[in-house]
């Protein structure tokens, strides 16, 4: 599969694209999916694709544009594209093909949402004798748009609303979106990606690595596997909406436990997340038995931790102890291992870290450094940021007074370091990892067995990186060669060449090498919790600083990272600000 060549399809910000640009992108995806995944498509999906391909060029151009618009309904008076010369004819062709529906049935709130606030006030300011209460908006002239919509929907009959909205504009609904979304999932391998990926690349805002695409690999082996994933994804979405629809909880729990004997890796992760979400919801409702059943059915962290906590809440200490032993013997990730080591079956709480970190200097004059008995080293300053200033930015100014140059990077630092050190490992040709040319990493980047699938490549790169001179050379060379190329582990907006040079200068090679190696062995663990700031002092001083304001406490992932840094001899601490006492 060949990526579109930006030089052949020039796009410039503010300038119109070539007439067939969006049309070609849409057809390319549909034709690829119909050729390579035809056995996964239902008749309705094939019918959609044939309907689009059977359109005239003008209608295809219009449909490609409409599918890129957000929202279930679109105003007809706001549809105007230079590449569609005869808009009414193209719209009529789409309507006859069943790809758009003019004046489609929709909830009145959706119809009202098409109008601006001024249009709502104008159209519904007076009764018309057809079901609108009067005086309709006399007391709502200063209300927000959502408040206006709620008031109109409550006081005005649906036929009245549907009669007044067309006075401003007719509307349409794009049909076939589920089939298009399925095509995008099969093409990109990720339900969050759509045709805007092409636009970002062709504008020069996104560049992709030139990796080897697995032409024989597919995200789903058969339609049954695809249906199982789509079902799991729907259940996960329902689990996120239980606060609005609590009556679905029991049926959802039953559906989630009805699972195949051998789900695919993707389905397993999706079902596990849904079960964990539902379990937490049951916990908040006080239904601990239902919560425990959800966690017991999930194989995705933090299900193990939640099982222990739920059993403890239920007073079943013996069962909680059994689960805790299982976690200690076979933790799913570092967070689970940390929890198992620190959870107390007596108190039901998690203890702090075992020792305090060694921090070589204070943050600012007057700072009182006091290592905690059961946690990381901590510096407390009786200072408060000015109103409106973020606590991290304030901390950077305070640290600058002590000679420190700080960057607010959080998890971007360990991830970016691993990206530069192990770039070729991330984009190594592993079966099924790369299905199209528009990926910022392999499909399994954050899966539990990522490192196991690349064990040899990781070991070989570690051997090269173990030499300090080679480590620095690889980081500098990779940064220069790959700057701007999409990599899920790298944020080019936050990490620049100067920072890379300063890190290599101020932080010992052994610390950077160990951090990069540990991140690439478990990229998922590096997505949260790393200290807010990296602070560099001259050519030979550094520290990692977690910033906390008054009343803030460390999250488990933050404690885990601070403990890791302490064990590996890194300079790390908590910088806590408290409100100054009034004199």
Q: Which features characterize this protein?
A:
single chain; 583 residues; alpha+beta; Serine Threonine Protein Phosphatase 5, Tetratricopeptide repeat; 4 domains; six-stranded mixed beta sheet; three-stranded antiparallel beta sheet; 9 strands; globular
Reconstruct the topology from this structure.
Blueprint: H1 21-36, H2 43-53, H3 57-67, E1 74-75, H4 87-96, E2 100-102, H5 108-113, H6 117-123, H7 145-155, H8 158-164, E3 171-174, H9 177-188, H10 196-202, H11 223-239, H12 249-257, H13 265-284, H14 288-297, H15 303-313, H16 317-329, H17 334-342, E4 368-369, E5 378-381, H18 391-400, E6 405-408, H19 412-421, H20 423-426, H21 455-465, H22 468-482, H23 497-506, H24 509-521, E7 533-537, E8 541-548, H25 556-567, E9 572-577
Parallel strand pairs: 5-9, 8-9
Antiparallel strand pairs: 1-3, 2-3, 4-5, 6-7, 7-8
Helix pairs in contact: 1-2, 1-3, 1-9, 2-9, 3-4, 11-12, 11-13, 12-13, 13-14, 14-15, 15-16, 16-17, 19-24, 22-23
Report on the architecture of this protein.
The chain has 583 residues and is of the alpha+beta class. It folds into 4 domains: 21-103 and 174-202, no CATH class; 108-169; 223-342, Serine Threonine Protein Phosphatase 5, Tetratricopeptide repeat (Alpha Horseshoe), CATH 1.25.40; 368-577, no CATH class. The chain contains 25 helices and 9 strands. It has helices at 21-36, 43-53, 57-67, 87-96, 108-113, 117-123, 145-155, 158-164, 177-188, 196-202, 223-239, 249-257, 265-284, 288-297, 303-313, 317-329, 334-342, 391-400, 412-421, 423-426, 455-465, 468-482, 497-506, 509-521, 556-567; strands at 74-75, 100-102, 171-174, 368-369, 378-381, 405-408, 533-537, 541-548, 572-577. The strands form 2 sheets. The chain has a 6-stranded mixed beta sheet with strand order 4-5-9-8-7-6, with helices on both faces. A 3-stranded antiparallel beta sheet has the order 1-3-2. The model is unreliable at 4-8 and 353-373 (pLDDT under 50).
